[in-house]
Amino acid sequence: MLRVVLAEDAVLLRAGLAELLDRGGHRVVAAVGDATELARAVDEHRPDIVLTDVRMPPGYRDEGLRAALALRSRHQRLPVLVLSQYVATAYATQLLGGGRDGGGLGYLLKDRVGEVAEFMDSLRRVADGQTVVDPEVVRVLLAQRTASRPLSRLTPREREVLAVMAEGRNNQSIARRLHITEASVVKHAGNIFMKLDLDPAEGNRRVLAVLAHLRAEDD
């Protein structure tokens, strides 16, 4: 069971998320509607994970995201899973840039909540310290940059492997998704890191290396 602080300004969605988490065996220790209440709830309850919307009152811009980043600075390694209505790669990279300090981080589109098993898996993975990125966000990031070097060096299959890798999946999961062997994944991953001059470290560091490269391509 995870102790969750939930922040979402839309009352019906907040209630729906709370019920979904409860049915999944987790406990929502606080469900709030703005960034100020989010900060207070985390300070009071010290949850296992924060689940928050990006846009919240009063400005409905990035208050939820900024609150999450501030909380990460006060509570080291606090797992945070951010939900967004739209693909906003700037928000995603801003959040995930803090992953080097440890602690799970995730950025999902709200539509992903409807895929209950996948959403619950993402929640657990973030709570366990992993990095989770919505596949659509990864797709957009790659689409924006595949015409530029050095991503243009990758074969179509290597770009497919890179896209799933950037979601935070391990080799076994990548193999299942793409219907290839784990040995093939290892080979493709080796080629990717060689061509992109990235650290081939496993786990969270590998995901963050990929995301750092994608951000660099946007500079």
UniProtKB/TrEMBL annotation:
Domain of life: Bacteria
Modified residues (4-aspartylphosphate): D53
GO biological process: phosphorelay signal transduction system; regulation of DNA-templated transcription
Protein's name according to its UniProt entry: DNA-binding response regulator
Domain HTH luxR-type span(s) in chain numbering: 147-216
Record organism: Streptomyces gougerotii
Domain Response regulatory: from-to ranges: 3-125
Cross-referenced PANTHER family: TRANSCRIPTIONAL REGULATORY PROTEIN NARL-RELATED, TWO-COMPONENT RESPONSE REGULATOR
Transcription listed as a keyword: yes
Pfam families: GerE, Response_reg
Keywords recorded for this protein, A-Z: DNA-binding, Phosphoprotein, Transcription, Transcription regulation
Protein's UniProt keywords contain DNA-binding: yes
Alphabetized GO MF terms: DNA binding
Database matches in Gene3D superfamilies: 3.40.50.2300
